[in-house]
Amino acid sequence: MSQLSLSLDSSLLVRDVAGDYRPANADEVLQAAQRVLAGQMRGCEALTSPHVVRDFLRVKLGALEHEMFAVIHLDAQNRVIEYVEMFRGTVSQTSVYPREVVKEALARNCAALLLVHNHPSGVAEPSRADEMLTQTLKSALALVDVRVLDHLIVAGSAILSFAERGLL
């Protein structure tokens, strides 16, 4: 077996527009992994499958060099309706607008949601601003009967849960 055959046997392949197969590059592998994890999340019991949600978030947000605030919308049975990236920030902060979070929740007719953002610094500890934002969003969403089940901070491969820490 040739060296080329050995390397192709252990590579993921993609088909180009001409119909020929070639080894996938790193971005194509990550995009495929995101599609698989998103498919596993959609319609799953988010609270009984926290590892699926955490794996998805690690792939989606763990390597970003800027902050991203996202929401996972859930139905009345806590099944995933949709993951939505709402606000993009800088390396150390992002602006989050409660009005927009409430509008998105109502547009998707969700009953509950998970708040998510990343810390590009690699430190998952919540800031005082993170804690205040969580309480503000929780109060605003409660006015329209949407429950905040958790706020997750992704820092590389580490994920901190506000609910597990008793911060919710």
Overview of the molecule:
The protein has six helices and seven strands, in the order αββααββαβαββα. The protein starts with a helix and ends with a helix. The chain has helices spanning 3-9, 26-41, 50-61, 98-107, 128-142, 162-165, and strands at 13-15, 21-23, 68-74, 80-88, 112-118, 147-155, 158-161. The protein has 168 residues and is α+β, with helices and mostly antiparallel strands. The strands form two sheets. The protein has a five-stranded mixed beta sheet with strand order 4-3-5-6-7, with helices on both faces.
Sequence-ordered SSE layout with sheet pairings:
Layout: H1 3-9, E1 13-15, E2 21-23, H2 26-41, H3 50-61, E3 68-74, E4 80-88, H4 98-107, E5 112-118, H5 128-142, E6 147-155, E7 158-161, H6 162-165
Parallel strand pairs: 5-6
Antiparallel strand pairs: 1-2, 3-4, 3-5, 6-7
Helix pairs in contact: 2-3, 4-5
